[in-house]
Amino acid sequence: MKTKILLKKTKSFLEYPHPNGIDVGYERQGIMPTIPIIGERFVLYPTRGMNTFSTSPVTEIVDETTFKTENGEYTFEYIS
């Protein structure tokens, strides 16, 4: 399964700004090679000119398009 998505960070569990600037409101488009899996980093492949993105390990699947990691909560939407 390779699907293009828009990933958004909706919550942070850190008590300080993220060292890589991935704070609440951060958005990234890319190719989702697989659904989020608990215990694994969620990976997003670039669609053009950007680096591969990955989260901290996934800790909880909230619903079909929302998941939590060690550092925050993310939601995504499918795009064409």
Brief characterization of the structure:
By secondary structure, this protein is mainly β.
Task: Give the tally of β-strands.
Answer: 6
Written as H for each helix and E for each strand, in order along the chain, the element string is EEEEEE
Share of residues in helices? under 10%
Low-confidence parts? none
Shape: globular
Mean pLDDT: 91
Number of continuous helical runs: 0
* Sheet with most strands: strand arrangement: 2-1-6-5-4-3
Give the helix/strand class: mainly beta
Largest sheet: 6 strands, antiparallel
Rounded radius of gyration (Å): 12 Å
Measured distance between first and last alpha carbons: 14 Å
Query: Per DSSP, what share of the residues sits in E-state strands of 2 or more residues?
Result: over 45%
Keywords:
80 residues; mainly beta; six-stranded antiparallel sheet; 52% strand; globular
Describe this protein's structure.
With 80 residues, the chain is mostly beta strands. 0% of the residues lie in helices and 52% in strands. The chain is built from no helices and six strands. The protein has strands spanning 3-12, 27-32, 41-44, 53-63, 66-69, 72-78. A six-stranded antiparallel beta sheet has the order 2-1-6-5-4-3, with no helix packed on it. The chain is globular, with a radius of gyration of 12 Å. The model has no long low-confidence stretch (mean pLDDT 91).
